[in-house]
Amino acid sequence: MRLTQEEQDMLDGKHGETVRKCMKVLVTLGKINGATHMIEIANVHSPGVSYRVTGDAGLNYIKDASEDAKFRIPATLNTIGIDYEDWETVGFPKDFSEKQLEICDCYHKMGAYATNTCTPYLVGNVPGFGEHVAWGESSAIVFSNSVLGARTNREGGPTALAAAVTGRVPAYGLHLDENRKGDFLIQVEREPRTDKDFAVLGYFAGKLVGTKTPVFTGFTKRPTLDNFKAMGAALASSGGAALFHVVGFTPEAPHLGAVIDEKTEPVVFGQQEYDQVCAKFHLSGEVDFVVLGCPHTSIHEMREAAELLEGKKVKTGLWICTSRQIKNLSDTMGYSKTIIDAGGEIVCDTCPVLCPTLTERGYKTVATNSGKMAHYAPGLWNLQPALLDTDECIRAAIEGKV
Ligand code: F3S
After folding, report:
1. Angle, nearest 10°, between helix axes 371-381 and 225-238?
2. Does residue 25 surpass a pLDDT of 90?
3. Half-sphere CA count of 359, side-chain side, radius 13 A
4. Which of 154, 311, 335, 391 is buried most deeply by CB count within 10 Å?
């Protein structure tokens, strides 16, 4: 690989041992993937910060790194395993929480921002079109590539750390023009309207394309940021796509020919395909847990939840997961009070997938508006999922059934 003098100095250990190790990781990764050089990146979104995911190995790794290195570029932190401020109130175990806090301290010491969210693009980390970044967290990666038109590969904890410490990534994969075209064409005949609809479409597409790139055509109306958030998260969990294009509505797809051969045979997504996905996440009867905010809620979603809960009481557990920054805004707007008065919990910094406690609560079923949560709930927590629209989720929480 061709390295600049500064990159070679990093590799030679002139910037310290952690920088040397990090550059070595990146050079090795680059060689494996045929990269000819490094790219300077604008920022990092760091995954692998949840103690539930990293365990003691991750904790020790970051402890060592934080002894002699700092981040060269801005870095936000992904969702962690506890509510950073209210872990005792929410009931997270002390031992787990203390180790989680230790991981956070190390990242903060190195210069990372304590965003603790899978939606960094809602709290200030918004890369521009064509900008190279190093992001982890599947739902954030796909949003960054597809909706913002920034460029990132799927980074894991160690590679994101290496990128933050060196300010570089090897030039391969989705950083290169030739790898950003679509592989599958999906003709959308049942146009999604609600977030559940977008999650269903994303889930369908993810199963179809795996880690390849789908191109959606047939949309007549611009999806909202929350629609894209819901679709991308589902797409990246039923499959592993890191990029999608919606013809006419995402920045690299002004027209079909810009992202895929126009003669590509399309796969149709119609009512039948929609119903098949819904049938997989169908539940009838009692519900004991309802989750909104996977990915973490926007302020619009907080308002919607508050309006639906105004003057009501929930019978089930209700978690609304969000970032601390959105929670603060929600507090100011009075949405948080309405939600809490109705018996809901606003859980910041974490989510049911990354926190340690759900089995102790004895839940059997979960209603959610998230395709990602519906996908993971059975395997992770043995929860039977119902994928519903937001208003149906809140109704399920109030009535205790669907
Ligand atoms: Fe975010 Fe947790 Fe869902 S990290 S995307 S809320 S699984």
Report:
1. 40
2. yes
3. 8
4. 335
Residue of 351, 368, 369, 383 to test ligand 1 pocket, by largest number of atoms within 8 Å of CB = 351
Which distant-in-sequence residues (6+ apart) come within 8 Å of 190 by Cβ? 197, 269, 270, 271, 273, 274
CA of 79 relative to ligand 1 center, distance in Å: 7
pTM over 0.85: yes
Q: Whose CA is nearest to atom 1 of ligand 1?
A: 295
Q: What is the pLDDT of residues 243-293, one digit of tens each?
A: 999 999 999 999 999 999 999 999 999 999 999 999 999 999 999 999 999
Q: In the block, which residue shows the tokens 């190390």?
A: 106
CA of 80 relative to ligand 1 center, distance in Å: 10
238: tokens are: 């039923």
Question: Which residues touch 167 (CB under 8 Å, ≥6 apart)?
Answer: 40, 41, 72, 73
> What's the CA gap between 215 and 260, in Å, rounded?
7
State how far the Cα of 16 lies from the Cα of 217, in Å rounded to an integer.
Answer: 50
Q: What are the structural domains of the chain?
A: 5-177 (3.30.499.10), 181-279 (no CATH), 281-399 (3.30.499.10)
356 Cα–ligand 1 center, Å: 14
**Ligand 1 atom 7, closest CA:** 353
To test the pocket of ligand 1, the residue of 46, 372, 376, 387 to mutate (highest count of ligand atoms within 8 Å of its CB) is: 372
Token code pair at residue 369: 């508006």
Nearest protein Cα to ligand 1, atom 3: 294
Nearest protein CA to atom 5 of ligand 1, as residue: 295
CA 175: distance to chain centroid? Answer: 19
Residue 153: strand, helix, or coil = coil
Query: Six-digit token pair at 56?
Result: 């003691």
Kindly give the number of the ligand 1 atom that is closest to the alpha carbon of 78. 4
Ligand 1, CB within 6 Å, residue ranges: 79, 118, 139, 233, 294-296, 321, 351, 353-354, 372
Q: Which among 54, 78, 79 is the best mutation to test ligand 1's pocket, defined by most ligand atoms within 8 Å of the CB?
A: 79
The percent of residues above 90 in pLDDT, for the chain, comes to: 94
Element (H, E) at 397: helix 390-399
Orientation of helix 195-209 relative to helix 390-399, angle to 10°:
110
